[in-house]
């Protein structure tokens, strides 16, 4: 392998662009001896060219020609998990043109916008809690929404041994509200509602950062437009 080749890239970037993991995770895998370049164990800082073969956990890694981001309307009843792990996996119900991983999760009882990408660095940066990325939801509950409930939801709710961050909440109809979160605690909205004696009967994510669900029907997906892709990367990289 010639480290001086103009078309060579660092091994951690290679793994990220192949959709295997983020650069940080790649560095950890390299340090653990899980990455091989041709016939030798890779070292931190190594570079690879298109002529090299890279193996991760013993499997050949194939770099993709294009980094993609899909917006997918996850139907209720499907789960975010690996293709073979569950019969209700999203990957068992739809075939994406490119091998991708989901960014964040939606639980089985929720539906709406889910981003999927083969860009490991982008996925990692979107999911970092400290980046405070916005996610917007429409929620319907089992009884009328009061002003007191809205105020309580906005100002922080004690769940999971912490207090949720203040957030934007607005009433839409008698039993429906919209909420914008910048954190992702486990079943956060449902737990917040439970605290005030409300039960969520419908939950749909309609936006992640600048990407909106729009007119996508449950089960449908689309590739982000160039403008959406650019704006998303700018938002993520500015954090």
Largest sheet: 9 strands, mixed
Total helical elements: 6
From the structure provided, what is the oligomeric state, counting identical versus distinct chains? single chain
Indicate the percent of residues in helices. Answer: 10-25%
* Class of secondary structure makeup: alpha+beta
Distance between the termini: 36 Å
CATH superfamily of the largest domain: Pseudouridine synthase I, catalytic domain, N-terminal subdomain
Query: Hey, roughly how much beta strand do the residues contain?
Result: 25-35%
Task: Note the overall shape.
Answer: elongated
- CATH topology of the largest domain, by name, is Alpha-Beta Plaits
Low-confidence stretches: 1-5
- Secondary-structure arrangement, i.e. CATH architecture of the largest domain: 2-Layer Sandwich
Written overview of the protein:
- With 239 residues, the protein is an alpha+beta fold.
- The protein has 3 domains: 9-61, RNA-binding S4 domain (Structural Genomics Hypothetical 15.5 Kd Protein In mrcA-pckA Intergenic Region, Chain A), CATH 3.10.290.10; 69-129 and 213-237, Alpha-Beta Plaits (2-Layer Sandwich), CATH 3.30.70; 134-208, 2-Layer Sandwich (Alpha-Beta Plaits), CATH 3.30.70.1560.
- The chain is built from 6 helices and 17 strands.
- The strands form 4 sheets. Strands 7, 8, 9, 10, 13, 14, 15, 16 and 17 form a 9-stranded mixed sheet that branches.
- Helix 1 (11-17) crosses helix 2 (23-31).
- Residues 1-5 have low confidence and may be disordered.
């Amino acid at each position: 392998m010639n480290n001086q080749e103009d078309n060579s890239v660092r091994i951690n970037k290679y793994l990220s662009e192949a959709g295997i993991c983020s650069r940080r995770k790649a560095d950890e895998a390299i340090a653990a001896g899980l990455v091989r370049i041709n016939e030798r164990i890779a070292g931190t800082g190594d570079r690879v060219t298109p002529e090299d073969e890279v193996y991760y956990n013993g499997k050949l890694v194939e770099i993709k020609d294009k980094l993609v981001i899909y917006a997918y309307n996850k139907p209720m009843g499907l789960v975010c998990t690996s293709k073979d792990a569950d019969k209700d996996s999203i990957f068992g119900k739809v075939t994406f043109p490119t091998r991708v991983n989901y960014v964040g999760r939606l639980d089985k009882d929720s539906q709406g916008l889910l981003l999927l990408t083969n860009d490991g660095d982008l996925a990692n940066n979107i999911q970092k809690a400290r980046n405070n990325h916005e996610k917007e939801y429409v929620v319907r509950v089992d009884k009328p929404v009061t002003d007191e409930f809205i105020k309580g939801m906005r100002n922080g709710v004690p769940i999971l041994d912490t207090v949720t961050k203040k957030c934007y909440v607005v009433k839409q109809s008698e039993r429906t509200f919209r909420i914008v979160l910048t954190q992702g605690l486990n079943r956060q909205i449902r737990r917040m509602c439970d605290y005030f004696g409300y039960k969520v009967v419908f939950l749909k994510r309609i936006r992640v950062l600048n990407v909106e669900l729009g007119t996508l029907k449950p089960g449908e997906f689309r590739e982000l437009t160039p403008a959406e892709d650019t704006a998303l990367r700018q938002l993520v990289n500015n954090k």
